[in-house]
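Hey,
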Amino acid sequence: MSYFLFGPRGTGKSTWLGQTYPDALWIDLLVPEVGRAYAARPERLQRLLEGRPETRRVVIDEIQKAPALLEVVHLLMERDRKLHFVLTGSSARKLRRAGVDLLAGRAVVTSLHPFMAAELPHFDLDTALRRGLLPLVWSSKKPDRTLRSYVAVYIREEVQAESLVRKVDSFSRFVEAISFSHAATLNLTEVARECQVSRKTVESYLSILEDLLLAFRLPVFTKRAKRQLTAHPKLYWFDAGVFASMRPRGPLDRPEEIAGAALEGLVAQHLRAWIDYSDADASLYFWRTKSGSEVDFVVYGGDAFYAFEVKNALRVRKRDTRSLQAFREDYPECQTRLLYRGSEVLEIAGVRCLPCDEYLTRLVPGKPLP
């Protein structure tokens, strides 16, 4: 089977593929001379395989560096059905800009996320909130330094090298400003005012973050809506540690506010990974009424219908379940979960309240949501 494997830098795509396909023919387009050679003459791939008729698996790392290669890959797949390709990418921007159709559906599109708690031998929630779950950071001898430099490396290598923006310093200010929107309803006009650029520029900058798989927008759940709902999506960085490292701190910033946003983001990245890895018929949303009731996450589809509230608190009270109760009034078919920092499993007003660290370790792809 041929497939695309998309994921941000540092999620371990190359490491996993190297372990999974040790005998594959490997083409690393991040190596400058290799990338230049295949970008200039993509037909080199056909000649290479003609000289290696025994090859059955080809890994092309960072395919967006030479999108014209996809035409050759498509041709080779048509000629030899026993030839399988794995194409990795950390950006979809060049592929979309080049009008690439991702092999006309002949290759499955998959994603790789940061570690899930269930993948780690020992999961510590506080460490995950501070450093995130990027394999690149976890394998580093100096994880804090690696994390601090992560986004800077992206800006230098991806944004500047590919000339995605004219002024990298303006984009850097935007990255800092948008960190305040993590786990919050997105207001591009306010972000533009903060960065002193146009709203259109902010929208283009945000698209770059999304194309680099560094951030994602969460839409509002509107199925059979019975109340007036907000129209703006929420924004999340793809990893809680990356958010924590980018979020500026000052005397007016409350630590619990930042920790709460990081915790919510950590749950978001786990739910996204569970959906993708399980190949589940489900999508991730949030729910917010114009009157102010909000449910942090809704997992909805043929395989699941759950509503989640995330609280950065050691204790929960009945009032903390009000939004979930309101959602359940409108959607009695859903199951409700409140995740918090305490240690007890509770049932409050019909809402199951669970320790967040325990819940995340029990979240296993291919198995039902706990």
